[in-house]
Amino acid sequence: MTHMLPISFSLNGQTVSMEVAAHTLLIDLVRGRLGLKGTKRSCDMEVCGACTMLLDGDPISSCTTLAVDVDQREVTTIEGVTPPDGLSRVQKAFVLHGGLQCGFCTPGFIMAVTALLKANPHPTDDEIRHYLHGNLCRCTGYVKIFEAVKSLAIEHVSEDAA
Amino acid sequence: MSNPTDSMSSVRPDLIEKVTGRAEYITDLVVPGMLHGFVVRSPVVHARIVSIDTTAARLIEGVVDVLVGADVASFGRWGVVLKDRPIIAIDRVRYVGEPVAVVIAETVEIAENAAELVDVEYEELPRATTIREALADGAPLIHERHENLEDFYFKGGARPTQNSNVFHTYRSSVGDVDAAEAIAAHVHEDSFTFPAISHFAMEPHTVIADFQGDALTIWAGAQTPTAVQKVLSRLFGLQLAKIRVVVPFVGGGFGGKASVKIEPLVAAASWKVRRPVRVAQSISDSMLTCRRLGAEITIRTAVDAKGRILAKTAKLLLDGGAYSDTGSAVATKSANRIMGPYVMPNLRLEASAVYTNTVPGAAFRSIGGPQAVWAKESHMDNVAAAIGMDPVEFRLINMAGRGERTRPDLRPLDMDMSELVGRVTQSPVFETQGSNRRARGLAVAATDPANTPIANAIVRLKIDGSVSVSVSSIEVGQGAHATMARVAAQTLQQRFSAVTTLRTDTDIAPYDWGTGASRSTVVVGLSVESAALDAADQIFDMVADVWELPKDSLTLVEGGVSTGSEVLTFHQIFHRALGVDSGEVVGRGGITPRSKKGALAESPLFWETSAGLAEIVVDEDTGQIHVPRYASAADVGRVINRVAAEGQDEGAAAMGFGHALFEELEFDDGQPVNATPIDYTIPRITDVPPVFDTILVENGDGPGPGGAKGMGEGAILPVAPAIANALFSTYGIRITDLPMTPEKVWRALQKRK
Ligand code: FES
Ligand code: FES
């Protein structure tokens, strides 16, 4: 019999309490039982960043995170950073600068950039590249992704608009 | 370097869906009652299957069935050029990774666990894992006989050599090469190799198949849905109209999802259990599904005393892997693409595709192009050095001009190659501080896209002025759906936001050859344009009829038709003409080789051209190549969406950096060495040049809407030879086998000392 464990965590601001098998991965829980499919699975081995979610605000690979490990913590997915109508400033910058093509890597990039700008609103060029080193994209060649992030890094916004 | 001018109202709607995570990909779809399949793969290189025991796997709770070769042997083999492929291995496996069983279960987890219990006994056979081994005397035959499917998908089929591993040879000859070489001032020959490379689309291959009686529905990330339809129709004996292929958003293709891949396998699984079955591969599985063809190339050029090319000879051997797929077309194209934009009065080309016991080769962005251009453009610099001429000068004096033919059977060049060279050499990125003019290398490419001029489109204009466009082009990130919407909007003079391009579904969309070879914008774009004109014509007919006006006095305006003196809304027109307050006109447009008075018939439809200039710095202690600056230029005729067009070229160039510097799918005696996303690396953000210039040349001289040419493949081509040429001119070393890894560069530097 699979051993089930009770967990309770915040998912995009809503409390979720449920029982999960000890080996259930966060990505499977979120995409499967919780039905939020915006997060994408690609490498499944923590090398591509497609499955990036935020755990207490920090980016993590949900493909290698156990669901039980988010107990009592805060999980944010692409659904959680998308305003009810319209786009977040990060999403808008990606759209306007063409920082995506097929879009499969995009939710992961949006999560990573959202976390980056929260921690460091005005990153340098090197800081941007370093921070996004773990997010792979086979389509864009990164030029327009970089331009999108750069446009945000040099923007002056009031704290609460971020 | 772009300055986004598009406001939010005119951005591609697909981008909004993708950036919010709402876009649906194949892995996000759920079909009610769907089971999950897990593929058991061959761990051996070449072997006879002695037995497959599935008893233990079937006993696991939740396992519904296991598909093996014996179930489907009677369906025979399939292919798109040669009929060489079983649905699943029957009595023999030909490469590591070949599917031998599919465990079908209630959940993926159960299927995966039960797959471990499938017991397959193999008896190893002699193997041929490289081009050399496959061509050796007495080499084991990977396929005993070759069955050509004449006129199945590509016209002409393949030219196999029976009783050998050569499944296709293409030859082309012009003039008298021997005579030209005899009188030449210099004859220079080089050899190059090019490795197998993984497509590495971020979304691995996934297919859902649902067999219901004599009908079959397939959901797949397929680039060529009509090819999938055709193969499945033949295999399972179903009418084309009974096979529906639905393609949601595709998470990257690059050719790896073109033609037909795992669709027959998943369809067979569903056929067996009579329920929908989904197979979602991992990236590692996809690396064992297809890859770019590796190559061995010998190229020779004869020049006169002034440095003019008298003759060119090239022999290309391509490693096609265990099954041919479209490898024959790749070989043919590699021969055409090794010519380049030069005048060569005498020419002898030969390209062969060879079976080996490795992962099947497949189409990949600019088929045969990177292999050919790597050899040809590295060779050009070697020839220039041998005759003591500047490599740029050597290219320029040999370049074919606009309107000149590089070979009598191909359309004349439709652009000025020297303009592209000028644009990259004058790029502002080389004016920036610290730039070193001596550390640069140039390469150019002119390729002939196989853009079959056959496509259809349906454009429906509704009473409220909204428009739907239906085409078989898939949306793989290139923005094809938005481009089609833009073409319809412009032709009908309606707002972009009023136009919707429908998700690709063969039940709705009319026939088209497929998405690839840079063809959608031109070929499908033209059919959308003509469908929109047809819809407009029908509206004009109604107005002319009811209002008794000459048709040529009518023009479309937003929301209706202008008669010159007043604007009639579409609603008024339908109301008066048909006596109803609802309806639509259905415009149909088609492109065939006979369209436009035959102007589309000559091949290629347009030339896809590019130039690249790389500046490099090498760390002589480690051999690591850095590319601080790169300029890429492409002739695109006319840009329909600048951000998307630049992005296509940047993506292609970045892929070129991977090809140039580190990408190689390695095999050791047939065993894949690095077929996992951990061991195989694609470029990261830190691997692309920090200073990058994307130049799009627009002369409005293409055959597509507004003078557009297709694009998206050219920019990958110059990257590797440009870097190699910079290495040659600056450090005096010539690397002839890709990728240019630090180790190879370091060794070459040591040898030079
Ligand atoms: S899917 Fe999790 S890091 Fe790639
Ligand atoms: S947009 Fe396709 S992988 Fe990034």
TrEMBL record, chain B:
Gene3D superfamilies xref list: Aldehyde oxidase/xanthine dehydrogenase, a/b hammerhead (3.90.1170.50), Aldehyde oxidase/xanthine dehydrogenase, molybdopterin binding domain (3.30.365.10)
What the entry lists under SMART domains is as follows: Ald_Xan_dh_C
Q: What top-level branch of life does the organism fall under?
A: Bacteria
Coiled-coil positions: none
The record places domain Aldehyde oxidase/xanthine dehydrogenase a/b hammerhead at: 20-126
Classification via InterPro entries: Ald_Oxase/Xan_DH_a/b, Ald_Oxase/Xan_DH_a/b_sf, Ald_Oxase/xanthine_DH-like, AldOxase/xan_DH_MoCoBD1, AldOxase/xan_DH_MoCoBD2, AldOxase/xan_DH_Mopterin-bd_sf
Question: Which PANTHER family does this chain map to?
Answer: XANTHINE DEHYDROGENASE (PTHR11908), XANTHINE DEHYDROGENASE SUBUNIT D-RELATED (PTHR11908:SF157)
Protein name per its UniProtKB record: Xanthine dehydrogenase family protein molybdopterin-binding subunit
The organism named in the record is Bradyrhizobium diversitatis
Q: What is the lineage of its organism?
A: Bacteria, Pseudomonadati, Pseudomonadota, Alphaproteobacteria, Hyphomicrobiales
